[in-house]
Structure formats: structure tokens, C-alpha cells
């Protein structure tokens, strides 16, 4: 999308030029349809929501800050309209003569210019579509738009830490299906390289610490128990925060809520996604969205709570990829 050319048409649209709306629609429709199509499964609903998005674009254009990326601003409208549709508390607006003004209705596609070509990538799209909405939306904006966690948090109006935890939970669910396929070049839209680290948290006698949580003082939505046995992390409602939060088993006081992170030999934190089970024992998966991990790095640990026990556990462990074995 040519930003300079876009500015010209935005100016014309603000003067009431209907042709400008058609041009802007043509420049942005692929990403808009692709994004809505991955968030909403019914094709007729997709078309209705997209029509409403462009109507709201026209209404909200005078408030658009030209110093900010247009596509980011437009995605704010996309999210609001999808959320309105999901709550089913809005009356869907259909543009008059939408067929003649906006042309044919395109097929729902993934955002971006490249289409899914391989069978593996088609299967990946289907798997992403099966994720819960809150996880699906962060995957789209993190890996297809390449937005930062801060941008995702701003779009969704959630804390940055919540955006990160949802991305990591989404990666964990995707790993259940693609555990042996994440290294393939076919998956370059999302993952490129990964490192797996096995861990276990034990008591002094060598037994695993119990998988349990302290939920006192929290507005618990789901305690994560089945027949009295803890099977998953509890979820709770934070005051003033939209949606739900997941109570971690391995807690940290770090602002990003991540107890494990990688740094290079200079101490700079690496930009990676983390998929982990958040259990007394499991595997940490550090993955990138395109760049290769350095041959030597450090795994850093910063923990102040394990289950119901508070304390301080910090450490740094070297990772030398030359000594690693490739997962089969």
C-alpha cells in the first residue's frame, strides 16, 4: 500500500469524494477481509462486518491522526466492529448499493500479499481458526501484521503483559498440533527457528512441587479444577481490564510477566515468543518469527512465586547450539 498515494485519496474522501472511498477500499480490502475472515467464520457475517467497517472509516476519518500509520488506525475500527458483532448488540449496517460501489465480494483470505499455497500452510490456517477468539486475534496481529506486543495491547486495550501471555498460550496450543513441524521452511509465515529446554521444579526430596494455586482475593472465573483435581490454570477477572487473565503457576514480578527469557552474549534480550506448559515439569519452546537465534546465548530465570509459594529464584544458564541435537 503506497502511503503517499493513500494520503491523496484520504484528502479527497474528506471532501466527500465517493470515488475516493472506492479507491481506499481497493487498496485495503484484502487485509481487511483476510483479518475479519480469520476472526469470524460465517462468510455472510464477514461481508456485513466489512461493509460496516468502511462506513465507520468514512465517519471517523476526520479524527484520524495523520502522524500514525493508517493501517494501524483502520485495524482499531476492525476490532471494534468485530467485537460489536460478537456481542450481537449492534444493528448491522449495509451500505446502499454495496455491490455497485464496492464491486464483487472477494474470497476470504489470510492477511498479507502471499496466499497460502502448501497443504501444510492450509492446515495451519485451519488450526489457527480453531483457536479461541482471544488467542486467534493476537496471533493474527503478532505474526501476520508483525505488530509489537505494545501495539497489540493498544489495539485490544489490554495490558502489554496480557498480550504477551495470550501469544505464548496460542503458541503452546499450536505446538500440540505441529510439534514436529515447527522447523520447516513452509512455516516461515509464523515460525523459523526454535529451541526446546526441558525443566522440572522439585522439592528438597526430589519430588515435583504440587500443581496448585492461591486464588484468594481474585475474582475467579474458572478455578481450573475437574473433580477436585487441578487440570489447568485458573482464570480471573482483573478490575478495569477487558476479558480474562490467566493465573500463572510460575510467577514473576517482571513487567512483561515472563519468568524465562533469552539474552545474547552482550546481555541484550532476544525478541522471541515463548510456549510453555506452566507446570511443575515441562518444555520451554523459544521461537522467532523470522530471524535466526544466535549460536550462543543465555537462558535467564526470574521467578518470585511457584504455585502457592513465594520466594526468589534467579539464575542464568548458557545455551550453546553447537552442542545441541536436532529434534526428530
UniProtKB/TrEMBL annotation:
Domain RNA polymerase sigma-70 region: 27-91
Pfam families: Sigma70_r2, Sigma70_r4_2
Residues in coiled coil: none
Residue stretches making up the RNA polymerase sigma factor 70 region 4 type domain: 122-174
Xref: InterPro entries: RNA_pol_sigma-70-like, RNA_pol_sigma-70_dom, RNA_pol_sigma70_r2, RNA_pol_sigma70_r4_t2, RNA_pol_sigma_r2, RNA_pol_sigma_r3/r4-like, WH-like_DNA-bd_sf
Protein name in the entry: Sigma-70 family RNA polymerase sigma factor
Keyword GTP-binding among UniProt keywords: no
Family: Belongs to the sigma-70 factor family. ECF subfamily.
Keyword Transcription among UniProt keywords: yes
Keywords: Sigma factor, Transcription, Transcription regulation
Organism per entry: Paenibacillus vulneris
Amino acid at each position: 500500500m503506497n502511503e503517499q498515494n493513500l494520503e491523496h485519496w484520504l484528502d479527497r474522501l474528506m471532501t466527500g469524494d465517493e470515488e475516493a472511498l472506492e479507491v481506499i477500499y481497493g487498496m485495503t480490502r484484502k487485509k481487511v477481509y483476510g483479518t475479519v475472515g480469520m476472526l469470524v467464520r460465517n462468510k455472510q457475517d464477514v461481508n456485513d462486518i466489512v461493509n460496516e467497517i468502511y462506513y465507520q472509516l468514512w465517519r471517523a476519518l476526520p479524527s484520524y491522526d495523520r502522524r500514525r500509520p493508517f493501517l494501524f488506525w483502520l485495524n482499531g475500527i476492525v476490532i471494534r466492529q468485530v467485537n460489536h458483532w460478537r456481542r450481537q448488540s449492534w444493528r448491522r449496517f449495509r451500505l446502499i448499493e454495496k455491490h455497485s460501489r464496492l464491486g464483487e465480494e472477494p474470497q476470504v483470505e489470510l492477511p498479507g500479499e502471499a496466499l497460502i499455497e502448501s497443504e501444510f500452510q492450509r492446515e495451519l490456517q485451519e488450526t489457527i481458526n480453531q483457536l479461541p477468539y482471544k488467542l486467534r486475534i493476537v496471533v493474527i496481529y503478532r505474526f501476520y501484521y508483525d505488530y509489537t506486543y505494545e501495539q497489540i495491547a493498544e489495539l485490544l486495550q489490554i495490558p502489554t503483559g496480557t498480550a504477551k501471555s495470550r501469544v505464548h498460550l496460542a503458541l503452546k496450543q499450536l505446538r500440540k498440533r505441529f510439534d514436529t513441524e515447527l522447523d520447516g521452511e513452509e512455516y516461515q509465515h509464523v515460525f523459523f527457528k526454535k529451541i526446546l529446554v526441558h525443566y522440572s521444579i522439585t522439592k528438597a526430596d526430589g519430588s515435583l512441587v504440587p500443581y496448585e494455586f492461591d486464588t484468594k482475593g481474585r475474582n475467579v472465573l474458572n478455578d481450573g479444577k475437574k473433580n477436585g483435581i487441578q487440570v489447568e490454570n485458573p482464570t480471573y477477572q482483573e478490575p478495569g481490564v477487558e476479558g480474562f487473565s490467566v493465573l500463572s503457576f510460575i510467577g514473576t514480578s517482571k513487567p512483561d510477566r515472563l519468568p524465562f527469557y533469552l539474552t545474547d552474549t552482550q546481555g541484550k534480550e532476544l525478541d522471541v515468543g515463548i510456549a510453555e506448559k506452566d507446570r511443575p515439569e515441562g518444555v520451554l519452546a523459544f521461537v522467532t518469527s523470522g530471524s535466526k537465534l544466535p549460536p550462543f546465548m543465555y537462558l535467564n530465570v526470574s521467578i518470585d512465586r511457584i504455585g502457592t509459594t513465594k520466594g526468589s529464584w534467579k539464575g542464568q544458564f548458557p545455551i550453546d547450539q553447537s552442542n545441541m541435537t536436532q529434534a526428530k
